[in-house]
From TrEMBL:
This is Helix-turn-helix transcriptional regulator. The keyword Chaperone does not apply. Residues 172-270 form the HTH araC/xylS-type domain. InterPro entries: Homeodomain-like_sf (IPR009057), HTH-like (IPR037923), HTH_AraC (IPR018060), HTH_AraC-typ_CS (IPR018062), Tscrpt_reg_AraC-type_HTH (IPR020449). It comes from Chryseobacterium tagetis. The keyword Transcription applies. Keywords: DNA-binding, Transcription, Transcription regulation. Gene3D superfamilies: Homeodomain-like.
Length: 276
């Protein structure tokens, strides 16, 4: 996906189209949020398949292997599909990983709380369809959308497996520490010691949940923030690199290009073209 944000609807016609084509498990280079108002979703993720009835929320993290089949129920299918790059809401997206890593699909009640979600989606969609949509408005509304979803999610008892609870808590605590220290030059040992565990066990948990090592997650968090700052600020490349713990501009540029294939300056120019 070239766009930093994209939104569309899955209706009965789109459901028929998707289910008449080859639809193999795959992964994305973006985050995806599905909010179902009517219909069903057959979702293969985390190596298991689940059939859920609307209303529902489903969050698919970047890189997760999955397959979705929107289905018609009672003659209806109405699902919001929102796709966005990590850096679009850099301050929020890693928190989403801690919330949804083991429960991608959440069934909700058809009440006023869900109606709020649908209303916010409509407002976002209306702005998105403008000739020159204001991405700052969309960014704020998307963050609010996740805040409401998180509030509803906490009211549900989603995990009754004690070992998974412990693993999930450790992962959440790691991401919380990462948010506090990712701009500093902290290595895997620092986070393991803070969590009173070995680097090996912390790596095992991160690999099982996010399919990345601790060092990879740290690097991705820095890169995500770098992209965010390149898009949303006028800071120089050197200033951004220094803010993220890179003492040399050349080292930051090298690390950025190694992961993205382009330099920070080239990335900024590309994003300006897309956003403007």
């Amino acid at each position: 996906m070239n766009e930093i944000f994209k939104m569309f609807k899955l209706d009965a016609v789109e459901s028929d189209r998707i289910n008449s084509t080859d639809n193999e498990p795959h992964h994305h280079d973006y985050e995806e949020l599905l909010i179902g108002k009517y219909g069903q979703l057959e979702h293969f993720i985390d190596f298991k398949s689940q059939l859920i009835d609307a209303p529902f929320v489903s969050f698919i993290a970047q890189g997760k292997v999955h397959r979705v089949k929107p289905l018609i129920k009672d003659g209806k299918c109405d699902i919001w599909a929102i796709r966005f790059k990590r850096e679009f809401i850099a301050e929020t997206v890693f928190q989403l990983y801690s919330s949804y890593h083991d429960k991608a699909n959440i069934c909700l009640k058809a009440d006023t709380c869900f109606e709020r979600l649908d209303s916010i989606c409509q407002i976002i969609y209306d702005e998105y369809l403008q000739p020159n949509p204001d991405l700052s408005i969309i960014r704020q509304l998307l963050s609010s959308l996740f805040t409401i979803i998180e509030s509803d999610r906490k009211k549900l008892n989603l995990n009754d497996d004690e070992s998974k609870k412990i693993q999930s808590l450790t992962f959440k605590n790691f991401l919380r520490l990462l948010e506090e220290h990712y701009k500093e030059a902290k290595d895997v040992n620092f986070y393991a010691e803070k969590l009173f565990m070995s680097t090996r066990n912390l790596n095992i948990i991160c690999q099982e949940i996010l399919h990345q090592s601790v060092s990879e997650i740290i690097e991705v968090r820095k890169l995500t923030e770098a992209k965010n700052l390149l898009i949303t600020t006028d800071k120089t490349i050197a200033e951004i690199g220094y803010e993220l713990g890179f003492n040399e501009k050349t080292y930051f540029t090298h690390a950025f290009k190694k992961k993205t294939g382009i330099t920070p300056s080239e990335y900024r120019k590309e994003m300006i073209k897309i956003i403007s």
